[in-house]
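To assess whether ligand presence alters the predicted conformation, the chain was also submitted together with S-adenosylmethionine. Input:
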Amino acid sequence: MAFKHWPIVRDVRFAQKGGRYLRGARKRRPDLNWDEFHRIARHFKQDDMGSFPERGYLFQLASDAPADAQVIEVGSWMGASTCFIAGGLKGAKAKIFAVDNFQGLSTCGEDAAWYSRHFQQLGANSTLEIFRKNFADLGFTPRSEPVVSDSLAAAQSLAGKRGTIDFIFIDGDHSYEACKADIAAWAPLVKKGGVIAFHDFGSRADGVTRAIFEATKAGRFEAIVGVAGTIIAFRM
Ligand SMILES: C[S@@+](CC[C@H](N)C(=O)[O-])C[C@H]1O[C@@H](n2cnc3c(N)ncnc32)[C@H](O)[C@@H]1O
């Protein structure tokens, strides 16, 4: 096992990085429930899909959504980003639809090797049960609705929600074609004034960056809301 994965080393790194991040976050946004963020972060100590600033920004975007917000996430994997969003939501009717095939299937060749290594380690061929367990452990089950489906098929089945969604987070297939298709399929579901955010903007997943640039130039988004790490958020 690599040195950085030793439990004691991991715990020290988590305490240092988390402590630094939380000190800044509490100053910047004293109105948000950072204790709740910390509770979720502790649960996902071993997660390697996002940084503190990225997880914190998702939590902030969800906290800024109205009460009883309706949220969609495309690409949930084991539910880490989904839980940070769920933790920020308020209101008994707030709901996050977590769209994923839960099989790491994507058209992005580079991703395929990464997922295949992970599934071998997991000894399973789906992350759905892990997703459900993470939600249950954190007490968020009533806020989640997993949608086990290909992204574009899910966009069709949820088409009745056109113009009603408060916040969409897209982190699914990272190829250019798929991200472009996701923007076309999902953006119309966001209500006017709602937020659409993407992971991996400016990352080595250059297809995602290109698809977002094109959509921005084409005037698909009203204004930029903010950036944290490789997350970029727009107002519709
Ligand atoms: C990078 S992971 C998501 C990570 C998660 N958002 C997080 O930060 O914890 C991408 C996910 O997208 C899913 N995915 C990729 N292409 C998809 C597609 N066409 N339809 C549905 N899910 C897809 C994969 O199964 C994988 O779970």
